[in-house]
Amino acid sequence: MLMDMTIKDVAKIAGVSPATVSRVINGTKPVSEEVTKRVLDAIEKTGFKRNAAARSLVVKRSNLLGVIIPDISNMYFSELIKGIDSMAHFYNYNIILSSSSTNENREVECFNLLLEKGVDGIIFTAYRYVRDPIYKIIDRASIPFVSLNRKCRNTISIRVDNTKESYEATKYLIKLGHRNIAFISGYFDDDASGIQRMDGYKKALKEYGIPIRQNLICEGDFTFKGGYNGAEKLLMFNKDITAIFAVNDEMAYGVMAYIQDIGLKIPKDISVMGFDDVAYSQNFRPRLTTVHQPIYDIGEMASKTIIKAINEGFREDDIIVKGGIAVRESTRRIE
């Protein structure tokens, strides 16, 4: 019975017109969050799935999306891929996942491999920054690309405002009374998690008249170990630190582990702030205060956006997704 469901059936259950259901599915025009939720709930109840068979008879397509990430073990990318795959499956697409394993040459190989496989579009997060060989591939390819986490020319970019969100996180710590705030960056040449998030940190300090101390800034590598080692380096020589801001949650976990290993308490002795809000951050103890990114939703948006570009034509765009601060137990006010 579910296979016989049509767009009109979905519209009837959702209490909207078939045109509105079509707009939600195809993303062609804005629809309110409340109406979108009703339509998606109706789709889930009916098991309705957009039929791409008619289109594929006219236009030769593989119905494959390529996805390139730098580190398959990173929790952020696990959640992102779930969102990408979920929405791709709804549209009768499958994904081919490729990891560059934080290797520049392998990243180029990933792009070329996916193009050889005949994917209809590529969703990617570049390692550190978009290099010239990647730009050359994008410029000469005939398929659309979606760049996540950073702006990239000739693509549709989907990202949070890294500078703004980092600024807000630092300002939050300052308003809690912290003045000696250490910062564990991404790679210093990473144009998103390194440069932009550091810019936000420095902007907040300057705004509140707090000196920028280079000895409170440390380069990280987005791993638990990187956060642990960064905290060790910072706290060994700076006993006045009251808060540490790490630019991703996994490094924040490492920071918390080191603080606890040396017998200090969080947040009584040192507050800790992360960035990303991966699912595990609600389960870590103490629960991590962090910059929230709607990671799963960004993944879904990436799939929906690139499929729309495949079907209706590509136009360069830069989509900014709103973040926020998820306040939990790892930060506190100090006098």
Please provide a written account of the structure.
By secondary structure, this protein is α/β, with parallel strands linked by helices. Among the domains are: 2-46, 434 Repressor (Amino-terminal Domain), CATH 1.10.260.40; 162-293, Rossmann fold (3-Layer(aba) Sandwich), CATH 3.40.50. Helices cover 45% and strands 16% of the residues. The chain has twelve helices and twelve strands. The protein has helices spanning 7-14, 18-26, 33-46, 53-58, 75-90, 104-116, 132-140, 162-175, 191-207, 224-237, 249-261, 295-312; strands spanning 64-69, 94-99, 121-124, 145-148, 156-160, 181-185, 217-219, 243-246, 271-276, 289-292, 317-321, 324-326. A six-stranded parallel sheet has the order 2-1-3-4-5-11, sandwiched between helices. Strand 1 (64-69), helix 5 and strand 2 form a beta-alpha-beta unit. Helix 1 packs across helix 2 (18-26) and helix 5 (75-90) crosses helix 12 (295-312). The longest helix is centred in the C-terminal third of the chain and has 18 residues, at 295-312. The chain is globular. Residues 51-59 have low confidence and may be disordered.
Note the topology:
Layout: H1 7-14, H2 18-26, H3 33-46, H4 53-58, E1 64-69, H5 75-90, E2 94-99, H6 104-116, E3 121-124, H7 132-140, E4 145-148, E5 156-160, H8 162-175, E6 181-185, H9 191-207, E7 217-219, H10 224-237, E8 243-246, H11 249-261, E9 271-276, E10 289-292, H12 295-312, E11 317-321, E12 324-326
Parallel strand pairs: 1-2, 1-3, 3-4, 4-5, 5-11, 6-7, 6-8, 8-9, 9-10
Antiparallel strand pairs: 10-12
